[in-house]
Please model this.
Amino acid sequence: MPTSWILMTNTICISLGGSSILGKRGIIPDNLEHFASALSRSEKSDKFVVVVGGGAASRQYISSSTKLLGNDRDLDEVGIAVTRVNALIVMKYLSKKISTFPKVLQTLEELPGALRGHRVAVMGGLRPGISTDAVAALACKKLRSKLLVNVSAVMYVYNKKPTAKGARAIHSLDHQTMLRIARRFDNRKPGTHFIFDLEASKIAKRENIEVRFSNLDEKNLILTIKGSNFRGSVVRSR
Ligand code: UTP
Model:
């Protein structure tokens, strides 16, 4: 399918971290509501790919089956299955608020077709060995989108573990710095949790994708999508 129409619209890929919509006891309805409201209040010419993470649920499943399964590939498959359950809930709820393709996509190839008649396409994980951040970066590459918004409980990239002494939030950084930080903190094991992982950082650098970080505050997310006066880190080329 020709993808030239995509260039006519503003397509934004969102990595919706599981931590932002899921607590220990499952979906946090208010947070999902804020997210849906922010998307429905965006410019009508904006289209979105929403890639939903696994959050606490995937980590719980992965850690409780680590001894039983014992290999990363199987554990990654468990993680992917959980992201797709979360994606199903997000897709069903978004459908009530904004034109959303009525299926959780399982491949990147389905994206152009899904977005042709709808403003939103939703997916979860794609394949073992990566995370949903990387899936969002791959979706940007597929659609030639130059903007990825990472929504999670943490809205700044830090020079150290955010809880460590002397940790400093970095408001603006280039791709090379993001890559260096991701290399230091992302050990790419099933269930690993880092604000923006190494594979995603590599794709963003190679494809020159701007990455903006936001929490699930509705106003801030709207500003982040617009790119004006938002709070949160931004990664862009110098
Ligand atoms: P996430 O991308 O949600 O990881 O995928 P995360 O770092 O826990 O992110 P948050 O907490 O949602 O922000 C959950 C797990 O699913 C597997 C990995 O094991 C990952 O840790 N996964 C996910 C894959 O193997 N491939 C994918 O494409 C996506």
Remarks:
- Residues 3-235 form a domain with the Carbamate kinase fold (CATH 3.40.1160.10).
- Residues 17-19, 53-55, 58-59, 76, 79-80, 83, 125-132, 135, 152, 190-193 surround uridine 5'-triphosphate (CB under 6 Å).
- The longest helix spans residues 72-94.
